[in-house]
Amino acid sequence: MAEVAKLKTPDGKELDLPIVEGTERERALDISKLRSSADLITLDEGYVNTGSCTSAITFLDGEKGILRYRGYPIEQLAQQCHFMEVCYLLIYGELPTHEQFENFSRTLRRHTLLHEDMRLFYDGFPRDAHPMAILGSVVGAMSTFYQDSLDPHDPDQVDISIVRLLAKLPTIAAFAYKKSVGQPYVYPSNDLSYCANFLRMMFAVPSEPYEVDPDFVSALNLLLIVHADHEQNCSTSTVRMVGSSLANLFASISAGISALWGPLHGGANEACVQMLEQIRRDGSNVKKYVDMAKDKHNNFRLMGFGHRVYKNFDPRAKIIKAACDKVLAKQKVRDPIFDVAVELERVALSDPYFIERKLYPNVDFYSGVIYRAIGIPLQMFTVLFAIGRLPGWIAHWVEMHASPTTKICRPRQIYIGPTERPFLPMDKR
Ligand code: ACO
């Protein structure tokens, strides 16, 4: 018989709550019958203790600093894989064979162009629009251009939507950047790899030759891989939640992009570099900022520090920090914010406040330093995160629809507002 936990309710009922165990021995109380059998719900703000689904995509152990996609350790994937292989792995469940990889890449290459009418959108956005706002809007608008592929229950329609999203997101993103700097849009070049093509669309201009730096391509490839999935984080849960209403894939991904934008989530990489810059301008007085972060009367937090799940070093931060050295070595002038970051990490990690709360650098702490070294402007950092996270969002959306137990996501609440009271006409209020 399956293991159960006993729950005694205030009115004396005894309930058996089944224990669900995952392949890595994580355990959960199955409370799906709680409301119908005991008229109780659970209350868990921020879903700190709540599993919203079972999933076979990503495993992470926050105590041990483990992250695996479909069973493969992130360290091995980051060192040995092409980002496209990781996309394939996350979405289809297995690493591609040579032939599968070639087919997948060839199909994507055929879809990198944007519809010319979509390009016209960019004329309407203000010059200083944040590229994350543009990204979310244009991805949402894809459902107006591809009305032939919006049915979540049709595998062929889902497949072509996946291809269109993966192929076009770098083009959408690079066009957003070109708009902000007033340069002509650079169309995709399908003989290049995913990352090389993106860098070219970002930095080439029609008047000059442009050579893609292979070290920048490898650094970008690594960054996209370490961002590719992170189980039920805020943006992925958003994609699942929106998708659970049977909204189409483009609409669901657009919602995920909005969730990622916030500074407590993907927006932290931009906020982190702004913070490092501020510390540098302020005489690199790292201790002052660590003290501010500890002060309960001050809203300031160390950006790029702390994580809901990792209570040990974030394995992604380790990989990125190691990659920093190689990319920074290419720069003629050492980026001073890297030194600020290293010192901030040293001071914070030896401070009891951070030790007791198990606050370590997260993925966003060093990623901005590499993006800067590659020449990516600050406002594009979170956009890069979105390009990396796209296969993870897609994989979760697809997994959710494939599950026979999926329901529309609709949490409950405990109402704490006024009880019934009579309506007062305006002249009596
Ligand atoms: N600086 C200072 N103190 C912090 C920080 C920080 N960056 N992060 C957490 N704390 C403190 C909190 O004040 C709290 O202290 P208390 O127990 O005395 O009240 C304790 O550590 C626990 O923090 P919570 O906010 O309860 O932890 P939670 O899991 O809700 O939040 C989060 C996690 C949002 C990532 C938080 O650590 C944070 O705001 N970090 C800065 C933003 C950031 O880097 N976000 C990127 C996360 S990674 C990603 O999304 C890709």
Write the layout of secondary structure elements.
Elements: E1 4-8, E2 14-21, E3 27-29, H1 34-38, E4 58-61, E5 66-69, E6 72-73, H2 74-80, H3 83-92, H4 98-109, H5 116-124, H6 131-145, H7 155-181, H8 194-203, H9 214-227, H10 234-243, H11 249-261, H12 268-281, H13 286-294, H14 315-329, H15 336-349, H16 352-356, H17 363-374, H18 381-402
Antiparallel strand pairs: 1-2, 2-3, 4-5, 5-6
Helix pairs in contact: 2-9, 3-18, 6-7, 6-11, 7-8, 7-18, 9-14, 9-17, 9-18, 10-11, 10-18, 11-18, 12-15, 12-17, 14-17
The chain binds acetyl coenzyme *A (ACO).
Q: Can you give the mean pLDDT?
A: 94
Helix content: 40-55%
Secondary structure category = mainly alpha
What's the shape?
globular
Gap from first CA to last CA:
62 Å
Strand order across the biggest sheet?
1-2-3
Number of strands: 6
Rg result: 23 Å
**Number of helical runs?**
18
Attached small molecules: acetyl coenzyme *A
Strand content: 5-15%
Please give the largest β-sheet: 3 strands, antiparallel
H/E element sequence: EEEHEEEHHHHHHHHHHHHHHHHH
Poorly predicted regions are none
